[in-house]
Each structure stands twice: as structure tokens, then as C-alpha cells.
Amino acid sequence: MEQSKAIGVIVYAQPGQPVQDMNCQDDECDLPPPSIPATYIPYNEDLINMLQSSDPSVNVTFQHTASSNFYMAIDSQGLLAQMGWLLYPTFQFFVWQAEWFNFKTSLQANMTDKALMLPVVNASIMQGETGIIRTVKMPKLTEMQKYKKVELDAYLSCPGTTDGTCPPWDHIMSLYVCCDNTSVLCGMELGRWITPFRRRIGHWLTNITPLIPLLTSDTCTFTMKLDAWWAEPWKPSLNIRFSEYNRNPDASDMYPYKIVPLFQGGTFNKSYNTQYKPIDFTVPTQVSKVEIVAIITGHGSDENGCGEFCPTSHHFVVNGKHENVKNFSTAGTLLGCAMGKPITGVEPNEHGTWLYGRNGWCNGRQVDPWVIDITMQLDNQSNNVTYFGWYQGTDPDPKEEPGYIVMYSYLVYYKNFS
């Protein structure tokens, strides 16, 4: 538009559609910003009719109004806290910060329950291809199985003491575990988080109780790292929290005792689903419950915004007839990671586009495992399970560089205490 000698640009939304940010994409972001003003306005039928009339004369005035963008707050513990970056001059950003304070208060209340804390990472710098590697002496597996709840207690801070010392961009932060170098379970993912954009207040509890069977030895090696080796450093801390100890379990109490890896993700293109074949499995005797546990997120961007900003669905089909579906329907929505999300742990008021809904994740939050009880879907002992992922109800078929799905999934067997 600038090259056509325009002196300003007005973009209007389609009827019933909200306004959107006007951002650069990919290589456009390397170009100098335009020198003419532009704005995005809601649909206004009277204005459109006026512009399409025989005398399309409209006066438009652009102005730059400076607004304050640095605020402090006092949280519910009476402590002074930063409030992050207010992207727009609206009080809604104060609301989101207050919601996160409520989340923090609730989290701290949950942490007062009696628990066994197993330190793994203590405020260490995480950067590079190897990340942080720690070898930890574990409690006996028979003791771990008596805890009804096992959680990853994760903090994510920065090298300095303010938000300004935190890295930009959102990256996948994963925790992998290996308790036996000869086992197929060595190197499986135990937890996943998405880093925020320049905020240092992250603290989350992730329930990983079904994944206890990954901890198969008296000594386990944990690796915490980013998916981007070149990213600037973060400073995480991690404990494994065992709570709700069942000192004297009876025969009606169950525990997860065996885990089998299922499907992992891949490039989200036309051949994505061709890599997945049905997996046959036989249910061991004395099993009282069977679950599928999956951790799924979408990343990258093709012409449809897949996999980060496109809504996808993920299907685990048991015995060819029982379809279990997870829909990431808020991906790509303007406030999908803002409205009602700070109370679930999303760090509010980050830099960048933290407000937009993502495909199975939000900036500055844990990725919760999807747990499916398939016990009633099984046929005696011999069974099978398959998986496929869809975009808009069918196989993805991007014409540009495809995105990708990051997925670890497991079959978990439970049995009763004898």
C-alpha cells in the first residue's frame, strides 16, 4: 500500500469477526517497518457504504498517544511484584495479573499438604544442546506406588532478578528420564512446559501419577532442556512431589505398575497419519485399570498456521470402535491463552503474542497430560489401539513448509495391592 502512494491504511474486519493485530510474518519481519500509519477497525456498515458511495469523502486522523507501561503490584502475600508488559492501554491486563495472583495463592495452599520432596534441579542455568542433567537416588518403587499423587513441582526463573533479564520467545522445555540404559523406557518424556516471553514468575504443579512406572530403578538420570539449543538461558528448579501417602493400602486400592510406549509425533503434513499402525496389546492378568496417557502440542506454521495456531484434533481408537478425541479448538483465537487462563497457571502480561490461543499449549504454562481410562473399552485380553491427527476433520495437507506435532503417549496398567 505504501508503494501505491497511500498515505494511510484502514483495514476493517469482516461482519461478525473481531479485529486482529497486524503483525509481520516470517521474512517480512526483517524488512523496515512501513512509514505510513495503519489501523484495524471493527466492521461498520455505514462507513463501508460511505466509502463505496459516489462521494467517498471521509476524514481520518491518526495520533500516537503515549500510555504508561510499567506498573508494580502487591500480591496476596503482601510482596511487591512486577506486572509484566501491558500490550494495550486496557485495565484487562490488571485483571489477568490479579487472576495469576489467585492462582499463586491456591498453588501455595496446595503445597502446605504433607509431602515427600525429591530435589532434582536447584536454580541451575539451562542452555545449549545438553541442558541440565542430574542423576538422582530414588525412593523404592514399592514406596512410590503407595503415594496417590506424584507431581512435578517446577519453577522457571531467569539469570537476573527482573523480567527484563528473561529470554524472549516461547520454547518447549522438556524433562526426560532414564533409569535403565537398556530399557525402551530410557529417554521417555516425563514432563513438558512452554517458556514465557520475558517473565520470571513461573511455578507449576503437573500431575504425573500414571507415569510412576517410568521410574524403574533406585537411580534415575533426568535431563531438562529446551528444544532450541541456541536460545538464551533460563534458570529452572524442579522437585518431584509425592503426596497422599497410603501407609496401609487395602485390596481395593490401585497403583500404576507397568507402562508401554505408544505413538510419538512428527511432521504435520499429508503423510502424517501414514506412519501410525495399530498396536496390538494383551492385558496382563490381575490388571484392574488401563489408561492411555498422552502429552501433545503443535508447533511451527504453514499457510494455515499449523501446527501452532491451527485447531487440530487427536484420536486414539481402541479396538477399532472406541474413539477418544482431544480437540484443541481455541488454537488461533485472539484471547485463547488469556481469558480465564492465568488462573490455570499462564504467566500473564508477557511480551509478544502470549494472548493468542495455541495448539495444545500456552506460553508460560505446563502442558497437562491427557489421561484416558479405556478399561471399559477393552475386549478380554487381546486388544489394539491406533492414533491419527486431523486438521479441519481430515488429514493435513499443507502447501507450504509444514508444522509438526510433539507427542509422547503411553499405555499404563494398574493393579490392586495384594
Order of helices and strands: EEHEEHEEHEEEEEEEEEEEEEEE
Q: Kindly state the mean pLDDT as a whole number?
A: 93
Structural class based on helices, strands and sheet pairing: mainly beta
Shape: globular
Q: Report the strand count.
A: 21
Gyration radius (Cα, Å) is 25 Å
Q: Uncertain segments of ≥5 residues (pLDDT<50)?
A: none
> How far apart lie the N and C ends?
75 Å
The neighbouring-strand order within the major sheet is 6-11-8-9-18
Q: How much helical structure, as a percent, in the residues?
A: under 10%
Q: Hey, roughly how much beta strand do the residues contain?
A: 35-45%
Largest sheet: 5 strands, antiparallel
Please render the helix and strand layout as text.
Elements: E1 9-12, E2 38-41, H1 45-51, E3 72-74, E4 80-82, H2 92-110, E5 115-121, E6 132-137, H3 141-144, E7 147-157, E8 172-178, E9 188-194, E10 202-207, E11 219-226, E12 235-245, E13 254-267, E14 279-282, E15 287-299, E16 312-318, E17 322-327, E18 365-366, E19 370-373, E20 382-391, E21 404-416
Parallel strand pairs: 1-2
Antiparallel strand pairs: 3-4, 5-12, 6-11, 7-10, 7-12, 8-9, 8-11, 9-18, 13-21, 14-20, 15-19, 15-21, 16-17, 16-20
Give a structural overview.
By secondary structure, the protein is mostly beta strands. It is 7% helix and 36% strand. It has 3 helices and 21 strands. A 5-stranded antiparallel β-sheet has the order 6-11-8-9-18, with no helix packed on it. The model has no long low-confidence stretch (mean pLDDT 93).
